[in-house]
Design goal:
Number of strands: 0
Distance between the termini: 55 Å
Oligomer: single chain
Order of helices and strands: HH
Number of helices: 2
Family: Belongs to the bacterial ribosomal protein bTHX family.
InterPro entries: Ribosomal_bTHX (IPR031414), Ribosomal_bTHX/bTHXc/bTHXm (IPR030826)
Number of domains: 1
Protein name: 30S ribosomal protein THX
Shape: rod-shaped
Helix content: 25-40%
Pfam families: Thx (PF17070)
Organism: Postechiella marina
Structural class: mainly alpha
Length: about 45
């Protein structure tokens, strides 16, 4: 259980791969784009 283990998070980081233990982080789309607004709300 360590750097050489394919199934652990540390092993995935060491190999530079992804899987169930270390999923890819997805970029979040802004809420304005989801709703379809052209301009963001401005703070007064």
């Amino acid at each position: 259980m360590g750097k050489g283990d394919k199934k652990t998070k540390r092993g995935k980081i060491n190999r530079g791969t992804f899987g169930a233990r270390r999923p890819r982080i997805k970029k979040k789309t802004p809420t304005e784009k989801k709703i379809g607004l052209k301009f963001k709300a401005q703070v007064k």
